[in-house]
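Async update (no meeting this week)

Hi team, since we skipped the sync, here's where things stand on the single-chain job. The sequence we agreed to prioritize is pasted below, unchanged from the tracker. I ran it this morning and attached the output directly underneath so nobody has to dig for it. Comments welcome in thread, and please keep replies under the output.
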Amino acid sequence: MTQGELIITQRRGAGWYIAWSLVFLIALTVMFFLGRLDSQQERTQLMNERDILNAQVDDLDLQLKEAQQKVVMLDRSAQVDAQASEEIMETITGLQQNIDNLEKELSFYRGIMAPELDVKGLHVNDFILEPLVTNGRYRFQLALTQVKSHKSFLQGRVTIAIEGSLNGKDTVHNMTELSSLTEKDMKFQFKYFQHIKGQFSLPEGFKPTQVIVNATTSGRKSQTIKKAFPWSV
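Output:
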């Protein structure tokens, strides 16, 4: 700087700082209320989904009570009318089967809404196995549930292995080897529950003993559940 030059600096007044402080406070206020709005919408959605599941539980409970009443009435009728007892007993057997199915379904939904205190997160609920008409071919259904917390979706993959023996040697077959299911079919994504189902065939001479289910969630807090089901067919 040469002698005689004059440098002028502009000093900001208090009004400038007050104005920017107000802008900052307004921005924070807007962000706060937008966050509360998103949170309220999510809570509303969860409450609606919970009400739907509760309604399903109430409906199943009502169906179960009606079926049990019919069984009692038919049982009394069978005692009165001996000639129609055989037909009535067949009806009672069918109703009893329906009651068993309703109780299982009711237990399934109640397990989601009111689980045991020591259970949380991913749960392998059930594995149903049924033989088909074709010899050596079967149908299965795996039920996965999320208990206690339903705030977010569970994502991950599941493997189903069938243990047994072939020609006297211990052998393990993966479900993807025995069926047309792919690795993509064995992935899951759900908030309350999901069923994975399909059909498969066993190799000739293979004697199954149990089914091993391994389900693993993805993400930072990964969870792995392993459960064994005895071969019940």
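Quick observations from my side:
The first strand starts at residue 121 and ends at 131.
The CA atoms of residues 74 and 95 lie 10 Å apart.
Reply here if anything looks off.
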